[in-house]
Amino acid sequence: DYAGPERAYSFTHPGTGNVTARLSSPCGELDIAVLRYEWWYEDGDCPGPETVTVGACDMDDDRGDGEVLIYATAENHYLVIVDGPDSEEESFVLTMDCE
């Protein structure tokens, strides 16, 4: 379902407890996924077919606004990915809230 272009952002969790990644896509059906992926930070490599191993992954695929809670007690690096099913492309707002 996710054959269209996605947007990926890097994020470093400070390790202070909860951070919530919130997606607002009022005009379309977009989803948010968060992957713990240390290798991009160390090597500068984004995940691809040859590097599909990730440390952790969570997704909100309710087709529209969504959020993913990220809990960490140590610094970790993440990729936050916004994508739409059926190659959908829409405007969105992505926020990261430390709690």
What features would you describe in this structure?
This protein is mainly beta. The protein contains one helix and seven strands, in the order βββαββββ. It has one helix at 38-43, and strands at residues 7-13, 17-24, 31-36, 56-60, 66-72, 76-83, 93-98. The strands form two sheets. It has a four-stranded antiparallel beta sheet. It has a three-stranded antiparallel beta sheet with strand order 5-2-7, with no helix packed on it. The mean pLDDT is 82.
Jot down its keywords.
four-stranded antiparallel β-sheet; three-stranded antiparallel β-sheet; 6% helix; 99 residues; globular; mainly beta
Largest sheet: 4 strands, antiparallel
| Low-pLDDT sequence parts | none
Q: Determine the structural class based on helices, strands and strand pairing.
A: mainly beta
What fraction, in percent, of the residue positions are helical?
Answer: under 10%
**Distance separating the two termini:** 33 Å
What value does the Rg take, in angstroms? 13 Å
- Determine the mean pLDDT: 82
Indicate the overall shape. Answer: globular
Strand content: over 45%
- Give the quaternary arrangement of the chains: single chain
Element-level helix/strand string? EEEHEEEE
Strand order in the largest sheet: 1-6-3-4
Q: Work out the number of β strands.
A: 7
